[in-house]
């Protein structure tokens, strides 16, 4: 049967394979990139041309561009990203999906502009050659390190004082109710004895 004969065979591009049953009218559409490789072009509606490795990220160039790190006390330090900068055998690049974290000197914490309450993420990540990291206005601040803990302690202390005052108020209210109940019992006791004496005399 000529219809069922294989008329042509198109091999899948490198680093790809047939992931499902192939039909004669699909061609390269039946090919999919192997794990760890990216499709070119990325649109599945277009014909597969190749499967490539994800690109590495130039962390050194990124840090130089955003100007977040430096020896100054208010600037971020390389932290765990130090292993990816130049001079550490990586040529300033980091592999795809890798993550590192910039840090601050001791006694300071990362801060975004003048907001020392908001938590600041200083992670640097790589995704197919694109580096993402802290916002450009991120810096290291002593206020961000000192003020939030003080505010937390003050808040906890104030809450404890309010709770103590409420407990004292409830205790005093309970004592007043007890005293009122005792007074009522004391005032009712003579009347009860008088009525009992009257009954005895009548008898």
TrEMBL record:
Source organism superkingdom: Eukaryota
Name of this chain's protein: Uncharacterized protein
Species this chain originates from: Zooxanthella nutricula
Phylogenetic lineage: Eukaryota, Sar, Alveolata, Dinophyceae, Peridiniales
């Amino acid at each position: 049967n000529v219809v069922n004969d294989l008329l042509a065979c198109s091999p899948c591009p490198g680093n790809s394979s047939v992931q499902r049953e192939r039909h004669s009218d699909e061609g390269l559409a039946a090919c999919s990139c192997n794990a760890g490789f990216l499709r070119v072009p990325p649109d599945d509606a277009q014909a597969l041309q190749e499967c490539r490795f994800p690109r590495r990220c130039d962390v050194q160039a990124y840090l130089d561009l955003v100007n977040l790190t430096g020896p100054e006390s208010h600037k971020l330090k390389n932290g765990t990203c130090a292993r990816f900068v130049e001079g550490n055998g990586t040529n300033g690049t980091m592999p795809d999906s890798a993550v590192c974290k910039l840090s601050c000197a001791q006694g300071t914490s990362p801060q975004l502009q003048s907001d020392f309450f908001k938590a600041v993420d200083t992670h640097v990540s790589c995704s197919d050659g694109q580096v993402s990291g802290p916002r450009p206005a991120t810096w290291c601040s002593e206020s961000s390190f000192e003020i939030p803990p003080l505010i937390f302690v003050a808040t906890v202390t104030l809450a404890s004082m309010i709770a103590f005052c409420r407990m004292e108020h409830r205790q005093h209210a309970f004592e007043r109710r007890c005293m009122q109940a005792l007074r009522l019992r004391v005032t009712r006791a003579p009347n009860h004895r008088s009525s009992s004496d009257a009954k005895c005399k009548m008898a």
